[in-house]
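fyi for ur records
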Amino acid sequence: MTMIHAYLSRISGPVIIFASAVHGLLFLAFLASLILLDPQAARAAEEPPRCEGRDLYAELQKTDPEAAAEAERTFAATPNNKGLFWRIEKEGAAPSHLFGTIHTTDPRTLTLPKPVGAALDEADVFVMETADARSKLSASLAMARHPSLFVYTDGKSAFDELDEEQAKALRAALAKRDIDPSTATKLKPWLIVGMLAAPPCELKRKAAGLEFLDNTLADRAEEDGKDIEGLESMVDQMRALADMPMESHLDSLANAAEMDDYAADMVETLTIRYLNEDTGLVMPALEAIGENIQGPLSAEQQAAAAAFEKNVLTGRNHTMADAAEPLLADGNAFIAIGALHLPGREGVVALLRDAGWTVTRVPLDTTN
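which gave:
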């Protein structure tokens, strides 16, 4: 068993939560750069290079083609499984657009395809997952008003739930990201897992002031004088995580430090699926990577996966689709949300169609 196999054999459940941190939970990355990264180091550093990693799914296709083929079958059976950019229409409303994003600073994801840039420039309003997450003041107020969503308020620490070896590995992983472990010790585990999901190179790029796709879109809209709206709040996102069983969070935390050496590989794997517009392949691919090594998920891992899907994906899909409808009715909106929220029977594309909207994919060239 190689090092990568030993690592993956322990993350087939937590890998699902890792995917959400990269694709779906904008606020986790923002929070890390806001309160935990050393601002002096950020100001002093030159622009860090983009992260480099391996495509683990491409490797799986070579080492276990049957497992990859099963992932492809799941992908093929997933509604709206391909596409990042969608046109939304209904009689009586000017057409709007929906764009799936990935929350990294990778330059390959920041160059907008021409149809996307044109739709953004022509839109009357820009809509993102959490508009309040762009404001340091809003983030600080949210933490002050809802401290239990962010930190332990009873004297406990997530580190207390780890054995000595796990705690040591976690502190080392935080230190690589210029995060003082003593500062992180009181954070709730979902915040720590979210920060560790991003490799050190990615967090250092954020700390150096490099924006990820959602914020570059918002900045462009703001410079053009557009209103900026949010489909949910950062507190909504934190509650979606907090409502999951604590045991699954602690299990993820125990494994997160061991993901450290391969975090860049996971981000690369996700980014390639994104650039190929294969949004419906992300979850089957990640599950196949883990299950190929570990075997079937345990009952506990299945429960954690179900809780993740309900709280972090499906539940939020309904919230965002419902919140989008009044903006779509006003017409000419540009909506940008994490790409994992688009595919599936209860993805945002399907939910908008169920609500009577005509949603049509606009193919893109995202490989340039």
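The radius of gyration is 20 Å. thats all i got for now
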